[in-house]
Design brief:
alpha/beta, globular, 6-stranded mixed beta sheet, about 25% helix
């Protein structure tokens, strides 16, 4: 699994001009699932992201996590994070998990975040979306 985690003041996922997921302060998590990923990977990654200390304390230091702040997560499936760009100019997505496997792991990741008391909003798996992100900082972490 590969993620891009962005600290946001707000974010939303829009499908056909309809908002399908929206959060205020928290994290936008773009989640790529690769062949060979398993449910345990989703659970571990959710725990790591929920506890990732990228929110500032009163001294301006990164000392607080999503769990500490009570922020929400907008989780968007993004198979393009698994792209292989080592050859040529067209990315290969052959290492991305097939949709029937990826969707279940996407749901498992979201459920694991919810189990850690993180409010979770989602995009729609497998459809074209517009993701609107107001990056706070900016703070962007790849995991």
């Amino acid at each position: 699994m590969r993620t891009v985690v962005q600290r946001v003041s707000e974010a939303r996922a829009v499908v056909a001009d309809q908002v399908v997921g929206e959060i205020g302060p928290g994290l936008c998590v773009l989640l790529g699932i690769a062949r060979g990923d398993e449910a345990g990977d989703a659970e571990r990654l959710a725990g790591r992201i929920a506890r990732l200390r990228i929110f500032e304390n009163d001294d301006g230091k990164f000392a607080r996590s999503l769990v500490d702040t009570g922020g929400a997560a907008l989780v968007v499936s993004q198979f393009t994070l698994i792209a292989d760009t080592t050859k040529g100019h067209r990315p290969s997505f052959s290492e991305a998990a097939p949709p029937e496997l990826a969707e279940g792991l996407y749901q498992a990741f979201c459920q694991s975040l919810s189990a850690l008391s993180v409010p979770v909003e989602t995009g729609v798996f497998g459809v074209r979306m517009r993701v609107e992100i107001v990056n706070d900082g900016p703070v962007t972490i790849m995991i």
